[in-house]
Amino acid sequence: MWDYSDKVKEHFFQPRNAGPLADANAVGDVGSISCGDALRLMLKVDPETETIQQAQFQTFGCGSAIASSSALTEIIKGMKLDDALKVSNQDIADYLDGLPPEKMHCSVMGREALQAAIANYRGEEWSDDHEEGALICKCFAIDAVLIEDTVRANNLSTMEDVINYTKAGGGCASCHEGIEEILAKVLAERGESFKPVPVKAKEAPKPGKLTNLERIRRIEAVLESVRPQLQRDHGDIELVDVDGKTVYVSMTGACAGCQMEALTLQGIQAKLMEELGELVKLVPTRAGSLARATSQP
Amino acid sequence: MQGIYLDNNATTRVDPAVVEAMLPYFTEQFGNPSSLHSFGNKVGLAVKKARMQVQELLGAEHESEIIFTSCGTESDSTAILSALKANPERREIITTVLEHPAILSLYSQLEKEGYAAHYLKVDGKGRVDMDEYKRRLSDKVAVVSVMWANNETGSFFPVLEMAELANAAGVMFHTDAVQAVGKVPIDLKSSKIDMLSLSGHKLHAPKGIGVLYLKRGVRFRPLLRGGHQERGRRAGTENTASIVALGKACEMALAAMQHENTEVRRLRDKLEAGILARVPHAFATGDVTNRLPNTSNIAFEYIEGEAILLLLNKFGIAASSGSACTSGSLEPSHVMRAMGIPYTAAHGTTRFSLSRYTTEDEIDRVIQVVPEIVAQLRKLSPYWGENGPSAEPEKDFAPVYA
Ligand SMILES: Cc1ncc(COP(=O)(O)O)c(C=O)c1O
């Protein structure tokens, strides 16, 4: 079954803040029953200070959907609405010590419930702009809709383009058949046909034979290679330290809500392992979300 | 605690007697059955014995109709692709919407390659419309593939009758009997079934061994060409230890056939009745009067299957689910959707599949645990009120972007 973190399991087996909230003045119902995940988030907001005094949830969904809902309520309790709006799905995933790529959408659902609830409180219409497709790239958690949209918007025509624009297919390469099908379909719409061009082979890593310096250079090169993507979404990543098998990085302002966000630590970690030819653990030393979560009562 | 294993449609434990039978073929009996010397010769005889044990379980007329393969999936692919190669001018293929991915993914690939695939629809209990089937049969059809028993619900398709109809129309008929073999009596010699797939790991033999039954005289084109193994129909040096194991497992399954259809069935019925009596808003899916003796698939409304499995697992109970989340896909089981089970129930379908090792104590324990788990999850569900579903569940909770 899924490789859930202990934190996910804990929040699933003992969910915090579960059940209806009678005097809620902000309610967000989101999710998709066809996908098997739906969530009602109920908040009690103090109108004077716009502070979330109480947050409760009801969730129809899997282990990580319930855990993400529970984590969300813990994160936002005591926050001001404007601060709560800044909580990203990555914050929820981080709070749970990560989610499997197939399950990142559970954290997205949490964030959307929060936006919907706040919109409800403010009397605004909330509409969702996110459409989810079948998961294609498991290394970087990228779905078919994102790939297809990117291929169309940027007139992409090769596998390498797709890897460069979306990261999809840039890891283990098992999903290349699926990506080729998307390319073929979009190219056919433009009246072109898909011609396979070999993806340039990367220099093979020499496992375990790296000097410390080489190793750090490679780590930096990997981080450098993902930075443009993150920066495009107003985020960034920096190397903080390397301690044995643990690589510490600091991440800032991941683009909340967009699917790029799924280009997460897991994806980068997979790339690092591939480049270094060894198992490493990528650990964020992000002050932001953790401090926020633990400082709440 | 040992754990209560009710996921025997996923895979089974290898019977200790089967392990014992296969072990010598890793050590002193390591020879290649094709070799002429005595190292190989004995192994060749053991493979022959295993072939006869499989033949017996299937009620096949000839021992040479048994072809050993690496798994059920290979048998399925070999059968379908052989039929297409043998009938290159026929460009239509028939199957049902309820098949295992071993058939469905292959068919969808064949569609991309230009074949016209017809997927027979089913009703709420998962039964095909025989009139639609008859209409589809023609001399343009290369092959029909219909599973003997469905892996999720255990329900049977009328494969004997469907094979007769195909035969009368001059169309090859294949059945994926991976779930049926060893659980229900089969007599292929009196049937019109041309090809049948089975998989060892569903009947207490190891994983990675399967069989394709090929009726004598049915035109065949191998998937793997090479050496003369399996009379040139499946090249590659035989997996002798697993073949011997499968033979033993078939012998044991035949001996236990009576038990499977009385005692295992009784326990399954007790489990299902016990759960349904204690859990409101739950129902058994599939054609419950016409199914495998070991399978019960129950839909628990308003909760999700992966969450059910995680909680069952905490009590040491292993089952499986048709929810989207357990497979990482976006849709719940295609089987439940095809039968028209609503989403609020399809995601909560839970399959309990027993074996001849299942005990009464285990069943009693599951009957006791399941209602608590369901109640616990329903407390979290936005579709659930104080003591039952909210007044109008799908209206009271209608999330955005459904
Ligand atoms: C109906 C059916 N067909 C085919 C298979 C695939 O068998 P194998 O795992 O041996 O390839 C299975 C196993 O899950 C099955 O249930």
Topology overview:
The complex is a heterodimer of chains A (297) and B (402).
Chain A: H1 6-13, E1 26-32, E2 37-46, E3 51-60, H2 63-76, H3 81-84, H4 89-95, H5 104-121, E4 135-137, E5 142-143, H6 144-153, H7 159-166, H8 176-189, H9 212-232, E6 236-243, E7 246-252, H10 265-276, E8 281-284, H11 287-294
Parallel strand pairs in A: 7-8
Antiparallel strand pairs in A: 1-2, 2-3, 4-5, 6-7
Chain B: E1 4-5, H1 16-22, H2 38-58, E2 66-69, H3 72-86, E3 92-96, H4 101-112, E4 116-120, H5 130-136, E5 141-145, H6 159-168, E6 172-176, E7 195-199, E8 210-214, H7 240-255, H8 257-278, E9 282-284, E10 295-300, H9 305-314, E11 317-318, E12 320-321, H10 324-327, H11 334-338, H12 343-346, E13 349-353, H13 360-380, H14 393-396
Parallel strand pairs in B: 1-11, 3-4, 3-5, 5-6, 6-7
Antiparallel strand pairs in B: 2-8, 7-8, 9-10, 10-13, 12-13
Helix pairs in contact in B: 1-7, 2-7, 8-13, 9-13
Structure, described:
The complex is a heterodimer of chains A (297) and B (402). Chain A is built from 11 helices and 8 strands. Chain A has helices at 6-13, 63-76, 81-84, 89-95, 104-121, 144-153, 159-166, 176-189, 212-232, 265-276, 287-294; strands spanning 26-32, 37-46, 51-60, 135-137, 142-143, 236-243, 246-252, 281-284. By secondary structure, chain B is an alpha/beta fold. In chain B, the strands form 3 sheets. Chain B has a 7-stranded mixed sheet, with helices on both faces. In chain B, strands 9-10-13-12 form a 4-stranded antiparallel sheet, with helices on one face. Chain B contains 14 helices and 13 strands. In chain B, strand 5, helix 6 (159-168) and strand 6 form a beta-alpha-beta unit. At the A-B interface, helix 1, strand 1, strand 2, strand 3 and helix 2 of A face helix 9 and helix 10 of B. The structure holds pyridoxal-5'-phosphate (PLP). Pyridoxal-5'-phosphate (PLP) binds at residues 71-73, 100, 102, 147, 151, 176, 178-179, 199, 210 of chain B.
